[in-house]
């Protein structure tokens, strides 16, 4: 896209400028003398590994947390952003990775929350409220969500769109999008980028945080890299050198983005045999086999049943028909505990609400699913539990002060490792990864790939549902591409390319050659 | 490389030693010292023994209530579950049933009612505030129908009297029952798998479910224990007053809940423990005792009692906010 950073530059002062920002949390430095500025009419991408301070910076910029030191200027004027409402009034709005919507309110009510149109008695004018939201949706090109729908009924991707619409309802001069695309499918991302492009032309300053280089490459005008709480470099997108950026982010060079794959099993040791599995409207006639030591990818466009397939195998889907055998024995998938007994382990989509007991310790979280093995007559063997937690932490290289640290105090990547450590303890054989690298930094992603390889080498079977094409290509031995809730195609070995997966997901017959346009390498599916 | 965001807090305390417990014990000591300063009689062994005896009834009920509240639920069926169990026992005795069988029947009845409570939470997913209050009304109705609003006049057997009012080596028997119940609660909460699941449900039921634990069974256990405790308290109260009467449970709707909350257990579930409920029960008893000796009208006492609970909850609430 054209560099439009000059088009809106009739005012010399940047739309948003933060200088000398410092923030400490109980002895930890989150931000240290950090500078950052964003011009009118530019998309400014903020990069950094987890814990680099970018989330803290964003929270300060939109008034969620006050800085310990430093000044923030909007269009040259020093301001105090005491709270998010004040920040919105001053023209700073944010979209966060974690959704902040009330599930029992309608879409329209959520979007207009705290700035509803009111009548003379302070009553909310419902019709006007819906009219404004309809108008907003028209402006930003959302046509498939009804303002009257209960928000909790929407898919994660649609909720993310509502979140973005909510931020835009304030008509912000500066828009912060923190991991806003992580739940979106290709089409929604495209729509979002079109929208951001239009906002950019109108002179909105956009701060964009993403871990997907393909997106960054496409949308960025400038990039700023944070490391250890400070700005370590700002570059124009035109001068961007990706390996240099990664170096800046990590402070060390990563040679290749994917570790060596575990060898593909050659014997015919079939661990999982799924035969004509169907589930009402959710899954149609799914058949495949999975060997020990194999990594099987599940790909497809958004909502093609990838997630439901994993959930069905984990006993979370009712009215299943068909046969599922583990190591030759038929298994009953009526509930998670039956699935676990059969050897399944699920690393769920949303670790915050589904995977972990946030206020409880690492020890308790790691032991949770295997307490039966760690106790005698209902009494927990504390020593064994501690040993288990310790082994889990070492094996997953979880960085924490101690095993008594509450999980809530860990970074996202480390939290994800806790979920996996938990399953390693149950002796699970078939690991179902439900989009595990969403919203985690480059270093943690790599640790994930290594772990998947390690599981495969140890004779476990892995199913990886991912929304990142490059990941499926880099990690899997075989990829099932789903379309319309059935398996459309199975790709093996060297046939697994981003182009091939995309073509199969779209139902394209002749596959594009190796020199297909790079836009096709964007991520494709998302949570269903 | 990631430790910037991680080392914010490194708490090495067991979950049951969190702030609320400490506050409640400090408060108990301060309250007791104040009471003793105003009236030295308070520090006498006779009085302390008396307070512990009264506290035992609340304390026993609070065992079940603590378990239920840790799951994020509440048991408001205690008053009439307790009364029904006690009257059932008295009726059986008046018809010549042996004491052990009558006691067992009362405990079984209480436990069954508790299990009925879990149906609402675990299967129908109706908030326990509503469902257990419904159970309470149901048991009230059952009691009235069963007794024709006329509890049986019985000669309470000596064993039951001893449970409620006896002394052994100078120590009240109800206190001994309480101590056993307290040990039971502490072991359950901190040493068993079931206890761990109670906290897990309170924090995040779906995480527990996805870890392969049938959370319905955990609710069943918590409510069954709560029902058992209510019945046990009913038996002890029968012994204490040497009779059963329709209003015998009326003090135990919210007082045990207050004891649990004052003891630092989070009303939303997930944290706290029975250690705090012990001091919570004693604070409640001490407050009631002090208020009953000063010359204030009943309404005034209620206002003071309520205000103190609100102030305490605010104190704990601040604690939570500041740690975020």
From TrEMBL, chain A:
Sorted UniProt keywords: ATP-binding, Cell membrane, Membrane, Nucleotide-binding, Repeat, Sugar transport, Translocase, Transport
Sorted alphabetically, which SMART domains does this protein's record hold? AAA
Q: Name one GO molecular function term.
A: ATP hydrolysis activity
- Which intervals hold domain ABC transporter? 16-253, 265-509
Taxonomically, which superkingdom?
A: Bacteria
* InterPro entries, per database record: AAA+_ATPase (IPR003593), ABC_carbohydrate_import_ATPase (IPR050107), ABC_transporter-like_ATP-bd (IPR003439), ABC_transporter-like_CS (IPR017871), P-loop_NTPase (IPR027417)
State the name under which the record lists this protein.
Ribose ABC transporter ATP-binding protein
Protein source organism? Salinisphaera hydrothermalis (strain C41B8)
TrEMBL record, chain B:
Sequence intervals crossing the membrane: 16-38, 50-70, 82-108, 129-149, 169-189, 218-240, 252-269, 299-317
Any one GO CC term of the record? plasma membrane
Subcellular location per UniProt equals: Cell inner membrane
Q: Indicate yes or no for the key word Transmembrane helix.
A: yes
The record, for Pfam families, names:
BPD_transp_2
| Record GO terms (molecular function) | transmembrane transporter activity
Identify the InterPro entries for this entry.
ABC_transp_permease (IPR001851)
The membrane topology term of the UniProt record is: Multi-pass membrane protein
Question: What are the protein's UniProt keywords?
Answer: Cell membrane, Membrane, Transmembrane, Transmembrane helix
Family membership, please give it: Belongs to the binding-protein-dependent transport system permease family. AraH/RbsC subfamily.
Write down what this protein is called.
Putative ABC transporter permease
């Amino acid at each position: 896209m054209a560099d439009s950073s000059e088009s809106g530059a009739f005012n010399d002062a940047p739309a948003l400028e933060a200088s000398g920002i410092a923030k400490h949390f109980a002895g930890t430095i989150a931000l240290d003398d950090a500078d950052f500025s964003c011009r009118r009419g530019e998309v400014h991408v903020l990069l950094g590994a987890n814990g680099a301070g970018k989330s803290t910076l964003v929270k300060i910029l939109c008034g969620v947390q006050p800085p310990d030191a430093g000044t923030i200027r909007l269009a040259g004027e020093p301001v105090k952003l005491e709270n998010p409402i004040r920040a919105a009034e001053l023209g700073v709005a944010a979209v966060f990775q974690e959704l902040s919507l009330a599930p029992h309110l309608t879409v329209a009510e959520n979007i207009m929350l705290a700035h509803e149109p009111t009548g003379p008695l302070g009553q909310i004018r419902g019709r006007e409220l819906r009219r404004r939201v309809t108008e907003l949706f028209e402006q930003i090109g959302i046509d498939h969500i009804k303002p009257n729908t209960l928000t909790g009924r929407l898919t994660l991707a649609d909720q993310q769109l509502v979140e973005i619409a909510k931020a835009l309802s304030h008509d912000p001069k500066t828009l912060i999008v923190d991991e806003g695309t992580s739940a979106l499918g290709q089409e929604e991302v495209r729509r979002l980028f079109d929208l951001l492009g239009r906002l950019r032309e109108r002179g909105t300053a956009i701060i964009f945080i993403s871990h997907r280089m393909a997106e960054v490459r496409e949308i960025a005008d400038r990039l700023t890299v944070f490391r250890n709480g400070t700005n370590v470099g700002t570059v124009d997108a035109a001068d961007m050198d990706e390996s240099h950026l990664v170096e800046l982010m990590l402070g060390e060079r990563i040679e290749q983005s994917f570790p060596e794959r575990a060898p593909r099993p050659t014997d015919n040791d079939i661990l999982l045999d799924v035969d004509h599995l169907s589930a009402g409207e959710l899954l149609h006639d799914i058949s495949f086999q999975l060997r020990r030591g194999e990594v099987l990818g599940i790909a497809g466009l958004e909502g093609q049943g990838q997630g439901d397939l994993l959930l069905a195998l984990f006993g979370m889907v009712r009215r299943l028909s068909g046969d599922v055998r583990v190591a030759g024995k038929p298994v009953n998938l009526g509930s998670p505990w039956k699935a676990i007994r059969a050897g399944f382990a699920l690393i769920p989509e949303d670790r915050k609400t589904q995977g972990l007991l946030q206020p409880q310790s690492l020890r308790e979280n790691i032991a949770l699913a295997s307490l039966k093995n760690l106790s005698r007559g209902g009494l927990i063997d504390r020593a064994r539990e501690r040993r288990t937690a310790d082994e889990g932490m070492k094996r997953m290289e979880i960085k924490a002060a101690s095993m008594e640290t509450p999980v809530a105090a860990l970074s996202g990547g480390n939290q994800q490792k806790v979920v996996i450590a938990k399953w390693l303890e149950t002796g699970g054989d078939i690991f179902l990864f439900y989009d595990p690298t969403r919203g985690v930094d480059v270093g943690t992603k790599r640790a994930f790939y290594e772990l998947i390889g390690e599981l495969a080498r140890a004779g476990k079977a892995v199913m990886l549902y991912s929304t990142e094409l490059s990941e499926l290509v880099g990690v899997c031995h075989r990829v099932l591409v789903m379309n319309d809730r059935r398996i459309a195609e199975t790709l093996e070995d060297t046939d697994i390319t981003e182009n091939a997966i995309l073509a199969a997901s779209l139902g394209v017959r002749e596959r594009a050659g190796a020199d297909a346009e790079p836009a096709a390498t964007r991520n494709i599916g998302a949570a269903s | 490389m990631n430790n910037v965001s991680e080392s914010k807090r490194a708490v090495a305390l067991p979950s049951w030693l969190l702030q609320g417990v400490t506050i409640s014990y400090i408060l108990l000591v301060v309250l007791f010292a104040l009471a003793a300063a105003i009236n030295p009689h308070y520090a006498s062994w006779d009085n302390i023994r008396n307070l512990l005896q009264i506290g035992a009834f609340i304390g026993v009920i609070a065992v079940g209530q603590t378990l239920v509240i840790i799951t994020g639920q509440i048991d408001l069926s205690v008053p009439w579950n307790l009364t029904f169990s006690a009257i059932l026992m008295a009726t059986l005795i008046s018809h010549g049933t042996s004491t052990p069988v009558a006691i067992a029947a009362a405990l079984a009845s209480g436990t069954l009612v508790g299990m009925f409570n879990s149906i609402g939470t675990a299967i129908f997913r109706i908030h326990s505030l509503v469902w257990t209050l419904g159970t309470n009304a149901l048991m009230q109705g059952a009691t009235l129908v069963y007794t024709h609003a006329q509890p049986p006049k019985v000669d309470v057997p000596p064993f039951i009297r001893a449970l409620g009012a006896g002394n052994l080596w100078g120590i009240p028997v109800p206190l001994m029952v309480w101590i056993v119940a307290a040990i039971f609660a502490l072991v359950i909460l901190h040493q068993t798998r079931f206890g761990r699941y109670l906290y897990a449900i309170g924090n995040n039921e779906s995480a527990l479910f996805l870890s392969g634990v049938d959370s319905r069974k955990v609710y069943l256990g918590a409510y069954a224990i709560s029902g058992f405790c209510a019945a046990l308290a009913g038996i002890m109260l029968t012994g204490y007053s040497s009779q059963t009467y329709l209003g015998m449970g009326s003090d135990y709707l919210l007082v045990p809940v207050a004891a649990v909350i004052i003891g630092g257990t989070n009303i939303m579930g997930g944290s706290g423990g029975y250690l705090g409920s012990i001091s919570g029960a004693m604070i409640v008893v001490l407050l009631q005792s002090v208020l009953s000796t000063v010359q204030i009208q009943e309404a005034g006492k209620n206002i003071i009692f309520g205000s103190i609970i609100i102030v305490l909850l605010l104190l704990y609430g601040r604690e939570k906010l500041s740690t975020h």
